Amino acid sequence: MQRVFATPTDYAKYAEEDFDDTDLLTKRLRSASVEVEKLIRGAVYDVDDDGYPTDADTAEDLAEATCAIVEHWADTDDPRGIDAVQGAVKIGSVSLGTTSSGSDNLSASEKLARRIGDKAVDILTTAGLIGAAVAHS
Predict the structure, then answer these.
(1) Residue 97 lies in a domain
(2) Which residues pair with 53 in a beta bridge?
(3) N or C: which terminus of the chain has fewer CB atoms within 10 Å of its end residue's CB?
(4) What string of H, E and C letters represents the secondary structure of 61-116?
(5) What confidence tens digit (pLDDT) does each residue in 44-90 have?
């Protein structure tokens, strides 16, 4: 079962801009939760039987980070991260996209920031959730 860390109500609480399509927002929150799961793999925190954090602050941090990813995708219009990993497209002397030769020269953290934004990573880092196994209570 895929855990979803945020609801449309959470999004309205944390995001600076409204998201008009609730069905699409729900799908994006699910996809963003997958990204959060990848980021917190190895983090230690108490969970319930369904794998959700039992600590309210941890749950809030996960919700806020999830919403930050969706907000980044809304800002970049790139919810699948396709543009984030593509470099410039060059046809003759015309270059479309970035001026670099692509994202091959970017570090893993720079690629991640392009795909999901810095804010979610910052939230999870500050909360101590990045880089640390889930403890079951």
Answers:
(1) no
(2) 47
(3) N
(4) HHHHHHHHHHHHHHHHCCCCCHHHHCCCEEECCEEECCCCCCCCCCCHHHHHHHHH
(5) 999 999 999 999 999 999 999 999 999 999 988 867 665 555 554 45
